[in-house]
Structures are given as C-alpha cells and as structure tokens.
C-alpha cells in the first residue's frame, strides 16, 4: 500500500532505528532538504541568478510533467501528495544548483502545470508553458524561444542528487570541446539521458525517450561530432523507479 499522510504520521512514531521511518522519510520535504543536499550552503540560496548575465552563457531547460501524472511508477510506495513533494524538492535542488553555477544564464522550467509555474516564480527563474505535447516537441519550442543562447543544458526534474560539481563538469567538458559538442550524462543503466548539453543549441535534435543516450550519441556521430560522455554517481541517479528511490535513500 502506498504511504498516505495518515500513514506517514503512524510511521513517524516508530523508533528512530526503525527501517520504515528512515526509508519513507524521503517523501518529507524536511528530509529531502537536509539529507546531504547542501541547501543550507549560502552558495545555494535563492537570488544568485542575478550574478550570471545571459550573454555567452548556457541556458538550462528543466522539463516537468504535470504533477498529478509524474512519478507514477512510485505509486506503490508513495501516495500522490508525497510524489508531488518529491518532485518539488528535487526540482528545488536542481534550480539552486544551477543558480550557483557560474556560466549558467537563463534557467527555464518547462511545464503546463500551474503549480510548477508558481514554484518557478517563487525561485526567481523563468517558466515556459508547454504548448506542444511530448518532451522533444516542448524542448524544440524552448530552444526556438531562447535562440540567443550559446548552448543549452537539459536536466530532468528528478535528479535529486545533482551537485554543483556535476554541472561544472559538464560545462567544463563543453568549454574544452570547441565550437560544436554534445555532452551526454547517461542514467545509471547507461540507457536514458539524465543530462544533455548541446553547443550550439541546434547542433543535433532532441531525441529523449527509451534508450535516448545511444540515440543522442548516434545523432552526434552523424554530424561528425564525437559525443562526450559525462558520468558521476550523483548525476546518473534519477528517481524513476522504486529501486532508484531505495538507492537514493541508501547513498544520500
């Protein structure tokens, strides 16, 4: 049975050494904000976006599904309210990490969910309403709207362990690659794309979906570009399945 708010209170009354209290606390915003995510670090505070002008900067896109539809594979462990809180906490971490990274300019949250738009406004980042169905179509629309960007970085909203080092590493890889590059951060299975940096933004088309890491690499090769693979324990972990959630709780 998925965890409900009432069940959450019951679990919270267990002994601190109880497995349930430790593992299911992932749905609590307090837990997610305190468990090695460095949100208390002054470098991660809201308002840093003003330090990074958009000229010659990377524009970051963070697509977010409608909240009532997201994280459905976790429904056996978390109820809807906790899945939404999980998305909010992960998205907040990503936004703050980007705001703290020199070289990142515009940060654009892409979603047709009004609640996500309100979060973006609160965190002082841009929001683009998704008009076209499908992730790739929405990203193409965003790329056309922010055509002045020197490069674009796409990050899913469920990278709960994303670090400043991850973003800096991808930007550094792109900087050393020359005028045209494709930097791919695969998921922990080596199949999905957990982050994608394109310089210039239209160097290849977006091809997210099943086994997208290999498809993005093939698109790069077809354009005469050797793809750059970026891997780290934190960026490879997305909260897409119950096993991902368990791994996050064990390691972070």
From TrEMBL:
It is an enzyme of class 2 (transferase). GO terms for molecular function: GTP binding; phospholactate guanylyltransferase activity. The keyword Transferase applies. Pathway: Cofactor biosynthesis; coenzyme F420 biosynthesis. Its EC number is 2.7.7.105. SUPFAM superfamilies: Nucleotide-diphospho-sugar transferases (SSF53448). Gene3D superfamilies: Spore Coat Polysaccharide Biosynthesis Protein SpsA, Chain A (3.90.550.10). It catalyses: phosphoenolpyruvate + GTP + H(+) = enolpyruvoyl-2-diphospho-5'-guanosine + diphosphate. It holds the Pfam family CofC. InterPro entries: CofC, Nucleotide-diphossugar_trans. One of its GO terms (biological process) is F420-0 metabolic process. The keyword Transferase applies. Keywords: GTP-binding, Nucleotide-binding, Nucleotidyltransferase, Transferase. Guanylyltransferase that catalyzes the activation of phosphoenolpyruvate (PEP) as enolpyruvoyl-2-diphospho-5'-guanosine, via the condensation of PEP with GTP. It is involved in the biosynthesis of coenzyme F420, a hydride carrier cofactor. Belongs to the CofC family. This is Phosphoenolpyruvate guanylyltransferase. It comes from Candidatus Thermofonsia Clade 3 bacterium. The lineage of its organism: Bacteria, Bacillati, Chloroflexota, Candidatus Thermofontia, Candidatus Thermofonsia Clade 3. The gene is cofC.
